[in-house]
Amino acid sequence: MADSVYHIGTQDLPLTQRVNKIPEKAVEEYYTSGHRTCQGCESALIMRLMAKAAGPRTIILGSTGCMYVANTTYYSTPWVVPWMHTQLGSSGSAATGTAAALRALMRKGKMKEEPINVIAFCGDGGGADMGVSSISAALMHTQYNLLIICYDNESYANTDIQISGSSPWGANTTFTPPGKKVRIMHKNWKKNIAALYAVGHTKCNYVATGDASYPADLIDKVRKGLKEPGPAFIHTLDPCPKGWDYDPFFSHKLGEMAVESGLFPLWEMTNGELTYTGVSARQVYGKRTRKPVRDYLEAQGRFHHFIDEDYEYFQEEVNNMWDNWTLPGVIPFKLGEDPSKKK
Amino acid sequence: MSIISYEIVYRGIFQKSLAMKISRTLVLAAVKEGKVGISFGRYSDSPERNGIPAKQFGYIAATKEELEEVAAQYEPKQVDLSICVDDALTKGVESWGWYGLQPINAVTKPGGTLIVTSNQSSDDLVKHIHRKDTSYNLSIVKGDASFAGLWVYKNDGTDARCLGAALKACPEICSMASLETAILENIGGDNHVEAARASYEDSRSDEIKPGEGNTEVPFTFELLKWQDMRLGVVIDAVGGHNHFGDSDGGYVPGRNEYFKKWSTRTMRPVVQFDKCTKCTLCWVACPDTVFDVTPDGYYDANMEACCGCGVCEAICPVPECITMVNEVVFEERDSQYEMWNKDKENFGTYVEEKIAKGKVENRHPITGLAGAFSGAGLAGGHNEDTFATKSLKEL
Amino acid sequence: MVTAVAEKGAGMELLTGSEVVAHICRLADVDVLTAYPIRPYDTVMQYVARMIANGDFDADYIPAESEHGQFEIVKHASACGARVFTGSSGVGWLYAMEPLAVTAGLRLPMVALVGCRALDDPGAFGTEHNDALLVRDLGWMINFPDTPQESVEMGLMAYRVAEDPRVFLPCAIAMDGAFLTHSQAIVQLPSQEQVSEFLPPYDRGDLLLHPDNPITIAPQANEDWLMEVRRQSSEASKNAYTVLKEVHKDYCRIFDEDVNPFIDEYMTDDAEIVLCGMGTMSLPVKVAIREMRKEGKKVGMVRLKWVRPFPTDELRVSLSRFKAVGVIDRDYSYGSPHHGGILFNEIKAALYGCDNQPFMKGFVCGLGGREVLLEDVRSMADQVSATAASGKPDNEVTWMGVRG
Fold this sequence. Notes:
heterotrimer, A: 343 residues, eight-stranded mixed beta sheet, 8 strands, 34% helix, 13% strand, C: 404 residues, alpha/beta, seven-stranded mixed beta sheet, 13 helices, globular
């Protein structure tokens, strides 16, 4: 008999809470060597930490992008767990299809029942542009346990760096090069991806932002997303030494600077409650001050055409987000006055 | 004239512009004398990745028909000239998982010339370069490897100096006058021309005899027949979780046997285990899963997997515990932990010697990597001719 | 519209082509289906939804957010070992083109109902075959049932051949919009026992995506490997032909039928000329042939049930018996050789160099849901006869029933 409320369980994997507990709680590698990613690729580190967090009973679907072409080029792969390619805009569909197959087959007794992690990842191209519709659909399927991770290096990196809906204002890319007449070719502000999914999909009970420079925070978020029944979503910010133009040595540091400047707050929403984590928590709940965003921007060659007013604009946007938004990084508007009271 | 073919072997992204300038300028110089030529990057090397070796090729011929003869085959089987712009590449080049390790002189024809930018001597280099059955000439352009980021070009004259050496090795390409004109039109000003001339004058090459060189047999890979490939574009995952060495403890992940990535590095981390506090940060932060966990909780960098990004040195909280050292000062890829464990004093000496010879200095986000990148607000940084400086309101 | 769901030991039902396919999904114990609304295929999904809601069919049924998503979902479900079903029409099928190519390229069995429909713009809901035929180069198998009853055979054969490990290719059931998707006829549905005997479980073996089988599926391949991958697919499509022939014997045995696996011949024994086509045009063609026979004209019909795998040998044997062959294309191929339709050019190529190669005439008829009228068929037959009589090739391709 068809049972619309049949649920497979989820995996409850131990949280690490601190970096130096990672060897104890998550030593095994499920993404290892064999990839030809750039030196200092933080997206590759996201892959490694994500797979490490998820463990062996996992199926991963990877959409087109750097983490497909640079990782897996026939006859080579870095994946220890089963992995399948999917299309650029299909991370939501791939996760749904995989989860649906497991659920249908287990329910009908054609496959041994067990909680299997289903993770689909996409880059910012797949998460902010082409894949929005399929992710949006996936995040409302409460009967499917799945996690979608958008690894965001702020460009279509695999095609040699072009602008995406998640690229920062003014960034140099091959579609938006500063020139003699036009310095700022990309005048759109970066989309707020995780917030878009969190706010619009009320049955998606886990949404978070993460950064590989805070590995324990990230591993724990992946594990929490996998544990939460139904769909989950994580957005990570990954410094990209090729596209952002800096010495790969600084990849980890740049990941910290993005959060320290307040440009990319770390948060998680679990079952309707949102909390900030790590450094961002200290900024929200405590007294930690945000570092000037100019330091972060100046450390990257993709902004080297900026002049003072560009840096000021950036700082204004960040200040506005922190001072005026209802929830920094998440809810950009406030409750207005009662319109009936206005004369 | 006979047809001339050449290749530039370079670090992807870091030397992309450099390789292109050298390759194009040679053709453009020859064209000044009525010759024909083409210059191209190997398409499947792109998209290039930081440090992953890549190749540019060029052909020069007297007539269109001759050019067609050689260009009919996309990638040359033999070249007159191999120009290697980072001497760490002389240890071998692995661009793709199924190419195996290709010696730097793999397609240098008998009697052809390998030009290498390096501060090493010919003898040092020959220790790394795999032996060939035929002779070839080795010419050194003295200097550091020149790196730059994707958006800016480090104009340090390396291109001109390589061009001078190339012309010396292969005088049939064109005359010095043509080369100078091409340099002025495509690269830079008089100081570039002077650099090319000086390099031309100073350039010497040594004949490397058959059998001379690194005796390592580079690992190879035979491509499968369609009948032997699995259906549905399926390949095996990487296997295995192992204990460290012969012990019952530690953790060593499975590693891919087809693509080792060590030829991507220009430098490698040297770890002073005596100083290590086992904080785990290097192990955690490495995008390439390089570190093996030893039974006593140290982290040992596997030199088959390390691509030399330096994040481990950056993140290590203990001063001078991890130091990035130029790859060319090493001959082996042995486990440092095992060296240390076996004989701590010896290892200490080894570490001191390597650091003294090749420590990488001057890391800076934008002008880091020994002066690699240019960036905002820094002297000698961006070129203000390149983009507008008016504010948005003014434009 | 929908009558009682058939019980075990099925009797006769009044069903549309779409509903037949819905029953096939149920009998085949499909595991995952995806739906997206577009006419005329989507009634199959409406029928399925009712079956599931009433507890007659157990499957994960997912309305997707677009056709691209729809096909991507089942593609991945198939990789994980689920038997899947989906479908679309016209521009919806186009919206799914990316997964259509990938599904075949990755050797993922999938059965999809294409409710043939004219491509927008200008929008028309009526049938044309261009949508289904768009995937003919990619490895998809494509069949064209002409009646609700034949949809049983096409649906079951689709699963059996697609899921055979020597094949592992997706299959499209191309069904004329309205004329077959929405028209009811008396159908004998098979029983569950028969279907269970005919369809073994779907088993991907060591290609299955599951933690017990660590593999990487579809790393990016370049020029060193791609030709070999394509060669494998070419082998698979050759196998599709031999496997189809082989398993059709099982089909005939289990379902007690005596039909040719690839083609349907009508009054060809003593025919001088034949008309060829696909899908529901078979009805007006047969009726017109009966009329012409009464007038002493020796006309027959050879209808293709499958266009991929293309029945080259069958057609060379069959059509070389006739002086001339008229091909009725319910599709167009602007700018093609002689501006002929797709089927015309394919049959002509298939017959190239065969003994007693017949003359060939091409026709374009019935586009956008326009009927194939009896007078059109008579006219086409007369034109083919005229060619036969002239003893010379006539490359003019005629568009039938166009005003002006």
